[in-house]
Specification:
Blueprint (H helix, E strand, L loop, with lengths): L4 E6 L6 H20 L6 E7 L3 E4 L5 E4 L1 E2 L10 E4 L5 H5 L2 H10 L5 E4 L3 H7 L7 E2 L6 H5 L5 E2 L18 E2 L5 H15 L1 H10 L25 H12 L7 H8 L3 H12 L3 H19 L4 H7 L5 H12 L3 H8 L1
Parallel strand pairs: 1-2, 1-6, 2-5, 6-7, 7-10, 8-9
Antiparallel strand pairs: 3-4
Length: about 325
């Protein structure tokens, strides 16, 4: 009997190339680590297209589909991944693909998506009643599928225990979150030590928990329509220990608190209070990852003031303590 687990990733015109190659490289690197340990490879990896052959990506180069998905028996697949990309909208209207995915769902052990690939699964009805995430820029599009339980603030929803996600049908956020998802799948298959070896080989953090926020306030795109808000965001990032209450921020922006709150939601998708919390959390994470500062010092520098406030925020967003986070990622 073939012991290899068959892992397949769909591709289609104008797919995001990293949504395909990133997760598949994790499985390929797992095979390398298995060989280093004197073990047989664990995975057979392939790319599926509407037809075999070259497929243009959104990056301008081509990927090559090994086989045509209409000719593949899903029962022969262990894990099937659906990537995102600029061509996702056309695939959401591809009735043949959606039908094939619906047929595949009960036959494969694991069916997941990367980035806006979640919209394809949603269009097929496969996320109805399930918790799902996607790239932050596509969260509102996913919310239009009103039977999907959208959690736009997670890296992925894979959870074989079923407590915080699903071990059968699951989703992930943008690009690098697909790599985190693949590492979680490898860990479930082959154990944490091997998954950590793969992460080290790929020069990644050991593995970010699926429930970790995908939102990075420090890296948020510049608001194009609101120069006043852009200036405020830059000031906030440089003054984390200042008074960043709504009233103080509104006074600085020369707006009413209500107008500022509305502007934050329009431009950033969340209110000022949540933004400040995430901004301070991101800064605390960076300090803990690379500077060896004490928990008390990090709390003071990032505006949390007291270590207990920092601890509560870490548990709320990352499900770990600041100390555990420092030990894992520093």
């Amino acid at each position: 009997m073939d012991a290899l687990k068959s892992v397949a990733c769909l591709t289609y015109p104008h797919v995001m190339s990293l949504d395909v190659s990133g997760p598949l490289q994790v499985f390929a690197s797992a095979n390398v680590e298995c060989r280093r340990l004197g073990q047989a490879p664990a995975y057979r990896i392939e790319v599926l297209g509407e037809r075999a052959g070259p497929v243009p990506t959104s990056a301008g180069f081509q990927l090559v589909a090994d086989r045509a998905w209409p000719e593949v028996d899903p029962a022969a697949l262990d894990t099937l991944l659906v990537p995102g990309g600029q061509g996702e909208a056309a695939q959401c209207a591809n009735a043949a693909l959606l039908s094939w995915l619906r047929n595949a769902e009960p036959k494969v052990r694991r069916l997941g998506s990367v980035c806006s690939g979640a919209l394809i699964l949603a269009a097929a009805g496969l996320l109805d009643g399930r918790r799902a995430t996607t790239h932050w820029a596509d969260v509102e599009a996913l919310r239009r599928h009103d039977r999907v339980l959208v959690d736009g603030d997670r890296l992925h929803t894979y959870d074989p225990s079923g407590r915080e996600g699903d071990g059968h049908v699951f989703t992930s956020a943008g690009v690098t979150a697909g790599i985190d998802l693949a590492l979680a799948l490898v860990e479930d298959d082959l154990g944490r030590p091997l998954a950590l070896a793969v992460a080290r080989r790929l020069v990644m953090f050991l593995r970010r928990p699926g429930g970790q926020t995908q939102f990075s306030a420090l890296l948020i795109p510049e608001p194009q329509r609101t120069p006043r808000l852009l200036g405020l965001l830059e000031w906030m990032a440089q003054n984390l220990s200042a008074d960043l209450s709504l009233d103080a921020l509104a006074e600085r922006a020369h707006l009413s608190p209500r107008s500022l709150s509305r502007l934050f939601v329009q431009e950033l998708g969340l209110g000022p209070g949540r933004y400040v919390e995430r901004l301070r959390l991101d800064a605390a994470r960076m300090l803990l990852q690379g500077h060896g500062a004490s928990i008390a010092t990090v709390a003071r520098l990032t505006g949390f003031r007291h270590p207990e406030n920092l601890r509560r925020t870490f548990h709320k967003h990352l499900a770990v303590s600041p100390q555990d986070y420092a030990e894992r990622f520093a």
